[in-house]
Batch of 2 targets.
Target 1
Amino acid sequence: MSHDTDTRGPGDVGPGFMDATGVTVGEGIARYVIGFVLASALTAASFYVLDTSLIWGPGIPVALVVLAVAQIGVHLVFFLHITTAPDNTNNVLALAFGVLIVALVIGGSLWIMDHLNERMMPMQEIMQMHR
Amino acid sequence: MSATDTSFPRAADPYRVGHGRDWLSAGGRGGGYVHATGHGEGGPASRRVIVGYGFWIFLLSDIVMFSAFFAAHAVLQTATAGGPSGRELFNLESIALQTGCLLASSFTCGLSAVATEVRNQLWTQIGLLVTGLLGLAFLTLEARDFAGMIMQGAGPDRSAFLSSLFAVVGLHGLHVSAGLLWLGTMMAQVFVKGFRPDIMRRLVCFNLFWHALDIIWVALFTIVYLIGLGR
Amino acid sequence: MFGKLTWDAIPWDQPIPLVAGSVVVLIVLAILAWVVLKGYLPYLWREWITSVDHKRIGVMYTLLGVLMLLRGFIDAIMMRSQQALAFHAAGYLPPEHYNQIFSAHGTIMIFFAAMPIMIGLMNFAVPLQLGVRDVAFPTLNSTSFWLTATGALLVNISLVVGEFARTGWLVYPPLSELPYSPGVGVDYYLWALLISGVGTLMTGINFVTTILKIRAPGMSYLRMTIFCWTALASNLLIVAAFPVLTATLGMLALDRYLGFHFFSNDAGGNMMMFINLIWTWGHPEVYILVLPAFGIFSEVISTFSGKPLFNYRSMVAATMFICLVSYLVWMHHFFTMGAGADVNAFFGITTSIIAVGTGVKIYNWLFTMYGGRIRFTTPMLWSMGFLVTFTIGGMTGVLLAVPPADFVLHNSLFLVAHFHNVIIAGVVFGAFAGITYWFPKAFGFRLDEGWGKAAFWLSLLGFYVVFMPLYVAGLLGMTRRLQHYDVAEWRPWVLAAGVGIIIMICALACQVTQFVVSIRRRDELRDDTGDPWHGRSLEWATASPPPPFNFAVLPDVRGEEPYWEIKQRAMETQQLSPEPQYQPIEMPRNSPTGFITAFFCTMTGFALIWHIWWMVGLGLVAAYGVFVWFAWREVVEYVIPAEEVARLDRARRQARERWLAQHARASEPA
């Protein structure tokens, strides 16, 4: 537990550890370069899609979300070194739990508040009625 | 040893859940469960794994906090109250520049981590310095955008939409600022104390933090800015 | 210079808070003076305030929680007595004061009584049950505690300096927005909860990491005790829910401090978004509180029935099921918002479904008791009282889960009776069961059974006499938070509840007497074996109180009830396992980091409440300073030499050998 010694137990890695598979410097840099190139390409695509006529107008937000999810995936794999290997199970499970909660918070809030907006007069009009 | 090590007598407990009866005779510490990796059966994990995992959980909680702000923005983005909408306010060029800065800083942060792995003081410091400078550039651009909007009378007190915009983007900016303060102390620690295990653990955490900020930015520029522009 | 803070902030014209506040201040000063004069201060600083030992932190958490429970209970007495008097009359509490009291009651009971007690018990018992030496991040643990204490302190300062929120315990906007609550009450609420919320979040991170990454060798997931499982579920929920609370209260703070429009009436703000977000935290919070209590009941019922827990695996499954589904029910807190049928139906059904998980647990507890040789000790009585009472509370909860019924009962006293029914029976009974169960482990002597049982029976009776009439009053249409009323039909029920609170006061007196009597008779009640209840899990394997390192050698876990098996083997072979090779043990050093951080957080929080901006800046700079100073520490651990470990462990082994000799021929231990 001291800061002088730090054994690296076999078969269990924390998130962000590069040494899981024993990479060399070259491989390490290569991995970040690949990640950077992919992420840059996806970012550029996002900005490009915005004004393009290649995609049907109402589909653009969907395309943007797809690109963002892809880019987040690239970041997770190439920058945060999250893998599907068994030694990473705990990290991936925690991530899945986090993603589930995020989906519940955002999805649930939108669903509930949409109902409110549909079924109630806009706040502005209510306020005007009180005047 | 790997998780697929077959030397472990599986028959007694095929699913490795600890309910087989033969473990009593298996002998040794933990009755042979040291083979089941990743779940701590072999006793407490190493300090490095504990710290990394704890910080990972913190990052997830942080992302949950962001999700509440994203939810608020999603609900309030049409509530412009007669004020300007995103289409009138957003400066696509500046946003692209900010995105570039942050992405590049994530990349250089990763390169510094590679240098840290081989305990190269010079390149670690250079990597961290460039990361910090890019982060600073990002913050400056963002502050300029914010100042410009406030000058136009489109500050957070103008409408609920702008409140949510300033809050979610500002929260990310605050994280980047805190990250920069942390980065400064990390550079000093690496310089003074060298690559001690405790410093290495902190560097891993810092790397995770910085990459996570970039992930949040991806969600931010997509949902708040790009989709907001199309609205 | 001092922002909004002037001498007028002290309520000179209101005798009740002034007198109450002065008495509290005098008591605190007297205790401080006594501590200083007796020369206990260095001891307190060394052994408690700067301690990073999970057992010490657990005890301090529990103590804080019990003190705040008393404070919240005084609020409850005032509310019940006010309503008993205020029929066609004004009563003795003016409305603005009454509103502060019900707001403070809810805030204190949930955040500063229930949470600290549950977190305290988890702190104390989880590492022991996992067979390890400490939590993942000991200094962070200490910081968590002191941040919680900061929040409690700020809420209590509001008693004498300024005022507390008058908005109810969840500060619903737009009432809590600046135009309608211009005072500092809501600000006290916001900063107390934001600061202590960070502490709680760090506890959650700490315990998730501890339970998932630090366990004794051989302790697979399905060999952990149910209390560890419920602690895991509870802390996962903390990690998932508390950030949402921080975000929501942060948005309200932005509204109040910087003129944002998240929840305001004008400029497009949406108050229902606050209510949506706060309950996204609020419903998981209910399970954050009650899941550890479920774990305590599981331990207690299994121990005192002399049987392993019935259907351990279904208990684990039910725990994780509740953990997940508790994040899918929040909308039932505002059915009356007027969402459509599909939203209401979805959340009504998930709410009913979550009762299934709890039902599984109830049957498991019943079947654990079935055929067991039950010892009716105090913790067991609390558990059995819980089983009956909580089931009633659960039933009324399922009633409220039906949206049409909820439209009738929303914000009535029926609702108030329901949530007190589940929280008192679940969390408060669980807290007392846990405290009496683990008290001998923490201090080496038991609590007096006679006074404990008296406290239990009076609490149980008092609970029914207070809250069953409130169910009826609610069905008769009485809403919550009434300062006065003039409906004659409600009168008898309110008076009955008033009688109930007198019984509760007697119960409380018994609790206090129990502690006083037990401490005085500690030599008679002492237990030197470390296993006073004939327990089954690992915490009973070590001495009472446990040494700083908990276990001289980490236990080698080979089953679901490791200690029970060790004990059976010892009794069969008439000897303890061979003496191990003692090694020196490294333990984390004490650190004042937590206390100093909390000091500056208190300062910053107070400055923010009163708009003393220079002090805010100072606090933030100091916080960064503490961070850097902490990062620069060189020596973070100390070593307990092998001889010291051997000495402590041999003393424990001698006590165990005496115990073994006493039970040489008894097939069944006492």
Target 2
Amino acid sequence: MTGSSNKNGIFVVVTGILWVAVTLMAWYGYWYQGIFVSLVMMLLYLITGARLNGKLDKSFMVYPILSWFVLWVVSFGLVGYYSSMFRGSAPTFTLLGFHPSFAWVFIAWVGSVLTLSLGFYINRDKWLSRKDWEEYQAKIKRMNQELSKGVK
Amino acid sequence: MSGGARIAIALCAFGVVVVSLLIGWWSKKKMSSAQSFFGSTALFGPVSVGLATMAAAASVFAVMGVPGNFYVLGNTINLWILSSGGFALSYIILGKKMRAMAELGPISTLGDVAALRFENHKGIKFIFAILIFLASIAYLSSQIKGVTVLFGYLLGWSPLTSALVIFGILIVYTAISGDVGGLLTQAFQGFVMVVAGIILVISFYMITGGMENAVMTIANAGEVTGGGITKALSPNMLDGWGAATNGTTMAFVIMPMIGLLGQPAILSRMYALKDPRDMPKMGLFASVSHLFVSFLAVVAGMGAMYLVASGRILPLENADSAILAFSEHVGIVCQVFTYAAVISAALSTASMFLTMASGMVARDVPDALGMKLDTRKQVTVGRVVMVILGIATIAFTLKSGSMVAMLTTLGYGTFITATFPVFVIGLLWKGCSKEGTFCGLLVSLVLNIVCMILVSKGVKWPGGLPWYMNVIALSIIVTVVVSLFTKGAKGNALDPRVQAAMDL
């Protein structure tokens, strides 16, 4: 197996461990910290899946992947911060009309579309270019022909 | 509700059903093979697939259940909205690999992709089919239940009449045109849901005078009593975590994002797309349309709570009626679109899972048992199975209350326990072996059934974590660990064409 395959293997094994870690953290009451661990897990999945022939384009890594990751880490940090600040009482101010804590859920929500969905669209060629797809199709066609010759 | 309003709502709701039937009838000419009947493989563009994916992912629970749960739990349930970004996340992670697999051979169902990846391992295909079948029936049953309650409330129909009329038509158009008609009707139903979302959001801001006024009114309301019911409103319900602050909250952040990747409604649509390079555009359509539909659920719940807090309506007897109470207060236009959205959500999810379940029964299980049918026979058997399964599910839903309650425990989480070992680990990691995946699936099947029974007996899980999070973690780690020590269908032993698909 190639180096990139090994890297994917390590990432997938780590994500498996992180699923267990997140579950155990919730069992023992560390559910808030578990959210941040789960974000790292999602980041690893994104990096693993976005690779093209074992390589991840740096600009695709920055936008959409890291932009989303940073936005969500900051957002959920602030969801927790404002939740603790106003737990048990009415908030003294609102943000975008919402409770300040939920406002950061709202920002994470709309922000995920502006980072992940829009960034994915803008940088689509770095995820899969026409050339890459056509080369893949040609390769499969060639392999299928060889396979049918072998069968005959 | 006035008689005129009832008639207007019923006409619009039936309008959605009839248009869906016509689309299904029209699209049967596009249905030419088992691939198109069961999976719409490589047939459609990003707009239709994007809207259809969103509609199938947003079930009756999203439109009626989320506002109802908000009335009880507050914003904990609104974390569900985070799935808007989950579409792009899913496509980035698995989109091109899944679509690339459809170039290797005739792909009709997810089971076919699993067979290609794992050297046609019968055990994997069989257990995977059983898990997807169980969860599909659970989803189908929930949609039938939601719609029968709705039409009982609206027209005074018996559950059997409502189910037979609405789902009878759905069974007919799905059986005629298969997934091709299913996908196109889902796209139409998704469009209806988006329009309803826009109308409800505008209505909310007009009724409440703005989000800030709604939030402050609810936060300062305390207890509200009326009609013999007391509703305690707390500012905690409005913060980012809502009333629940435990493992449930954490699960509701994780599941809408990475959990969406494990939904067959997402995975199977990856190969329905004609050109994989359109997947980013499809992600954008699904995400943006989902923004409207999820905000519909947020404002409907918040709107109902605001009306109760401000004394404009009495506290609700049944939390699930939150969206209906809000739209009834707003007026006839809002009501018409609310009911149209609920029925669209039910039909789109139901047709998706009826096709999925029949594909498992008509193709994947017989294939796993060594029975080969030619393409034409597969479609015929698929149609017969669809009709039988549809009618059987209606009967089961209406006659076996306790069994239905138990079965509907399965669903979103069950799908993840089935698809992660097979596709997420299987297509991302060449080191994933068939033995590992088989063991992961076996653990999933056993634990899903055990948990279904335990949940029905009221067993609570550590840390307030939903049962399925534990099963997902265990099935994934079993798949990984067993793969590390076994050799089947991994590394250099993999079909070189599968390796090429995984390299994309």
